[in-house]
Design brief:
Chain lengths: 119, 326
């Protein structure tokens, strides 16, 4: 039972590595960006998992009820904004990828490097 | 029961992530990424992060998929087949790192441990002071918009910069009129998506506005509302075609909105300074500090919502309007 409480962190580690693999091993730039998204989501999962409190509920205070336990609101704030920043930076990455494709006719990293060497 | 559901979701996340990396078809990968985000949103919800789940569902499963598809339309749908030379080095690196990371988790407090160090620092103070200082229910909104407003302002500026970057990189530099427009009729000839989509748009936008103005009392706030309103506007453009989408919100207006939202945020900060407080201290905005806090939070949330929505719509237009390379 002790180890079941660590499952979220193991999934975090696996997702982080799956994302990293796509970034370092796949030559396709779009695939790299997808890998980066997975990597990012893994970090989000780590933060949100750490914010969970047993028997807690979402940190929205209700008046007049029984005293409640709340999960930690701070990781929620950090990740909430990070998700929106994440999509903006991914959009920027995609825009650069589109321009690379127009300039080189490909988005495969090895082919781009070959062309670049010949210039 | 809920715990078991959580385990299934987490396992599915790993399976989906592996499928995304393995599949050679990028269209399939993007669709799987959408499913991945939806699973992630459900996981966040189980972990009590209602606000984060909303954002992830709207951004990850909605906007991000549309932007990836918009980019794929300009790139190529399939990955080039990797030639036989396969390096074991990346696999070895990630296996080693995964092992190290998992080894490190044995020192972490188990999930939900109330005695974990992360719950001892400032979080209890936020939970205690939010009802006192601003009389608000949603602690996440209070921390985001008031206690850590500097942080949020910085992030809004990052979004603004990224949005302007996308528009600058993808704008062709030619005036609109001299260009042969791609005849994009949207889904006008597909009856079912069009009728269903048009029925949904008002409700999506209404829900976005509800989140915007109800974020103090329930899950919601500028980031979620901005994303959901952007999805509604983009859906309209998808159904009616790019030109019709631009007609209701021209890019010049969008640029103004992107900058205007960030300006509104900063202006609220400077207003506090002019009234004798610190930057982004809302207590001085009104004679009653609690009312001042609420006013400030409302205003900056509106600024955040405007910038986020306009940035996402502008990024969509930047991709949708670009002509594919020959």
């Amino acid at each position: 039972m002790k180890y079941l409480g660590l499952y979220n962190y193991w999934v975090f580690a696996l997702l982080l590595m799956i994302g990293l693999y796509a970034v370092i091993a796949k030559p396709n730039l779009v695939k790299k960006l997808l890998g980066l998204s997975i990597f990012q989501s893994a970090v989000f999962l780590l933060f949100i998992s750490m914010g969970k409190v047993e028997g807690g509920t979402a940190p929205i205070i209700q008046h007049g009820g029984e005293p409640q336990i709340f999960s930690n609101p701070l990781p929620h704030v950090l990740i909430l904004t990070a998700i929106v920043v994440g999509i903006s930076t991914i959009a920027l990455g995609l825009a650069i990828t589109v321009r690379i494709r127009e300039a080189f006719g490909t988005v495969e990293e090895n082919e781009i490097q070959l062309q670049d060497r010949d210039r | 029961m809920i715990t078991a559901f959580g385990f299934v979701l987490l396992t599915l996340l790993v399976v989906t992530a592996i499928a995304i990396v393995v599949t050679p078809n990028l269209f399939v990968a993007v669709m799987l990424m959408s499913i991945f985000s939806l699973l992630m949103a459900a996981t966040f919800f189980l972990l009590d992060a209602a606000d984060v789940a909303l954002t992830e569902a709207a951004i990850g499963a909605g906007m991000s998929t549309i932007l990836f598809l918009g980019a794929l339309a300009l790139i190529a749908e399939r990955e080039a087949r990797a030639r036989a030379r396969r390096s074991w080095l990346p696999l070895a690196v990630i296996a080693l790192t995964a092992f190290t990371l998992i080894f490190a988790t044995f020192d972490k407090p188990r999930l939900g441990d109330p005695a974990a160090p992360v719950h001892q620092h400032i979080a209890p103070w936020y939970l205690e002071q939010t009802p006192v200082l601003m009389e608000m229910s949603n602690v996440v909104t209070a921390v985001l918009a008031s206690f850590r407003a500097y942080d949020t302002l910085g992030e809004v500026l990052v979004i603004l910069t990224a949005g302007l970057g996308v528009m600058l990189i993808l704008s062709s530099g030619r005036p609109d009129s001299s260009r042969q427009r791609r005849a994009t009729g949207g889904l006008r000839h597909h009856l079912v998506p069009r009728v269903v989509g048009q029925l949904l748009i008002p409700f999506i936008v209404l829900f976005g506005l509800y989140l915007q103005f109800h974020g103090e009392y329930g899950p919601g706030g500028g980031f979620q509302a901005g994303a959901i309103i952007a999805v509604g506007i983009v859906l309209h453009a998808l159904l009616e075609g790019e030109a019709a989408g631009r007609a209701i919100l021209p890019v010049s207006v969008l640029v103004g909105l992107i900058a205007g939202g960030a300006l509104l945020f900063s202006a609220v900060g400077f207003a506090g300074m002019l009234l004798g407080g610190n930057f982004l201290d809302y207590s001085v905005l009104s004679a009653n500090p609690v009312a001042g806090q609420q006013l400030g939070i409302h205003l900056i949330e509106v600024g955040v919502g405007i910038t986020v929505a306009a940035t996402l719509v502008a990024a969509f237009h930047a991709f949708a309007d670009r002509e594919p390379a020959a």
